[in-house]
Write a structure and sequence with these properties.
With 460 residues, this protein is α/β, with parallel strands linked by helices. Among the domains are: 22-32 and 332-448, 3-Layer(aba) Sandwich (EreA/ChaN-like  fold), CATH 3.40.1660.10; 81-153, EreA/ChaN-like, small alpha-beta sandwich; 155-262. It is 51% helix and 14% strand. It is built from 20 helices and eleven strands. The chain has helices spanning 2-25, 36-43, 59-76, 87-97, 106-110, 124-138, 158-172, 174-184, 195-203, 211-232, 234-259, 264-290, 302-305, 312-315, 321-328, 368-374, 388-393, 412-416, 422-425, 445-448; strands at residues 27-28, 48-51, 80-86, 149-154, 296-299, 333-347, 356-360, 379-383, 398-401, 417-420, 428-435. A hairpin with an 8-residue loop joins strand 6 and strand 7 (356-360). The protein starts with a helix and ends in a 12-residue tail after the last helix.
Length: 460
């Protein structure tokens, strides 16, 4: 027992020393925001700024990303926000913020987000940002290149993207639309508009694979779409690009849904690789239009944007957006993570469940969240290029929490923590000690009724 107590005292002393080092190099923030000069110095001449989040349902993370992105658009010439959302759903928002006809309100623009988790993008923070971006773009009426857009990177929209490809072709080439309809009819065999149902049938031999058909359709669109777009001008180019990315999404989604019933690492890697491919294609498209390299902000979860090579998940074979972007664009990316210690979060108990306002348990002993809590500040920023002693501390592996759209506090250690070297994972970290649940646009009785407080201590 004395030896155990001695070891515990030693561990507490080491943690206190680590917290003291972080405290000495932490930069102040207000409401999760560094001052203007600190923020712009951190971004520097980066073309891609990747802003993470501690969960998919923490209001302060959304608010901080919103305000930091405004600065980049207004002061640094960033021209697009690319988010962890499906391509056609986000493009509906893009049309609104760029003033391209319907939809005619931010709420209507966000109505395309119908798939679980609806609150992830249909919330008051994103609504406020979309309204701001529309007003900002309206000041550049007639200057299409000066407008900033809103785009999705994800691949879950298999059937929606199929419909968008066919709708585009019906307007420019009815014969091509008929060919597309015939090829995509392969998905009808799964019985319903459910990518998982198709993937299950194809993976286990209960239905045919549509891989060949979707590849043929993408190549057909690429061969014939570009010449028509060049003939008809800028907006036609945007429409062609939108359709082509939908066809690429169908191709990626078909492979993803087949793979998800096998190797989980393979399906994760397919998804994040698709997001990078979409981001690179978007950057190329906007750069060609603007006549200069496009600058893009990315909004996604820490688990996608922090370099996977600095995590135990990376050792297991996973890659992610942050890693691949650093590899493809060395020196042109800034990876910025967000952490929180406790508070509330909007999340579900299970996939497809209702949005709940759930209590976030305090960070576990030995976690980066618990270390940052010991710093004793409501919020702070660590820049690892300047906070060298803190970076040394945070290059040692610690537990790090990831809350997605599902939060299971009763199995938190197993469900939500992994080991990471935070200073290698990110270029900077914003810590907000206590965060509140993001507010869905459709508040339900489930969400309005607070979860009863947890009793501590507890075992996970």
């Amino acid at each position: 027992m004395p030896n155990r107590e001695f070891r515990n005292r030693g561990a507490r002393s080491e943690e206190a020393s680590a917290a003291s080092i972080v405290r000495s190099e932490a930069l102040p923030v207000t409401d999760g925001l560094p001052d203007d000069q600190t923020w712009l110095d951190l971004v520097g001449d980066a073309r891609f700024v990747l802003l993470g989040e501690a969960s998919h349902g923490s209001a302060e993370c959304y608010s901080a990303r919103e305000h930091l992105t405004r600065r980049l658009i207004e002061e640094q010439g960033f021209c697009a926000v690319a988010v962890e959302a499906d391509w056609p759903d986000a493009y509906r928002v893009n049309r609104y913020v760029r003033g391209e006809g319907r939809p005619d309100s931010a709420d209507d623009a966000l109505s395309g987000f119908e798939r679980f988790p609806v609150w992830m993008w249909r919330n008051t923070s994103v609504l406020r940002f979309a309204e701001w971006l529309r007003v900002r773009n309206d000041r550049h009426e007639g200057e299409e290149h000066a407008k900033a857009g809103f785009y999705g990177l994800d691949l879950y929209s298999l059937h929606r993207s199929v419909r968008e490809v066919i709708a585009y072709l019906e307007g420019v080439d009815p014969e091509a639309a008929a060919r597309a309809r015939a090829r995509y009819a392969c998905f009808d065999h799964s019985g319903r508009e459910d990518g998982q149902a198709y993937g299950y049938a194809a993976a286990f031999g209960a239905g045919e694979s549509c891989q060949e058909q979707v590849l043929e359709q993408l190549l057909d669109l690429q061969r014939h779409g570009l010449e028509a777009a060049r003939r008809d001008g800028l907006l036609a180019e945007d429409d062609r690009f939108y359709a082509e990315r939908n066809a690429q999404t169908v191709l990626a989604a078909e492979e993803y849904y087949r793979s998800m019933f096998g190797d989980s690492v393979a399906s994760w890697n397919l998804r994040d690789t698709h997001m990078v491919e979409t981001l690179d294609a978007l950057a190329e498209h906007l750069s060609e239009q603007r006549g200069e390299p496009a600058k893009i902000v990315v909004w996604a979860h820490n688990s996608h944007l922090g370099d996977a090579r600095a995590t135990e998940l990376g050792r297991g074979g996973e890659l992610n957006v942050g890693q691949v972007m650093r590899e493809r664009h060395p020196g042109e990316c800034r990876l910025i993570g967000f952490t929180t210690y406790t508070g509330t979060v909007t999340a579900a108990d299970d996939w497809g469940g209702p949005a709940l306002r759930k209590q976030v348990r305090p960070g576990l002993p030995g976690s980066v969240e618990e270390l940052f809590h010991q710093v004793g500040r409501k919020a702070f920023l660590l820049r690892f290029d300047q906070a060298q002693r803190a970076a040394e501390v945070l290059r040692e592996e610690r537990l790090e929490r990831a809350i997605g759209v599902i939060y299971r506090p009763d199995t938190e250690r197993h469900s939500h923590y992994f080991h990471a070297r935070v200073a290698d994972q990110f270029d900077a970290i914003v810590h907000i000690d206590e965060t509140q649940a993001v507010e869905p646009l459709e508040r339900t009785a489930h969400w309005d009724q607070d979860e009863p407080p947890e009793t501590y201590p507890f075992e996970v």
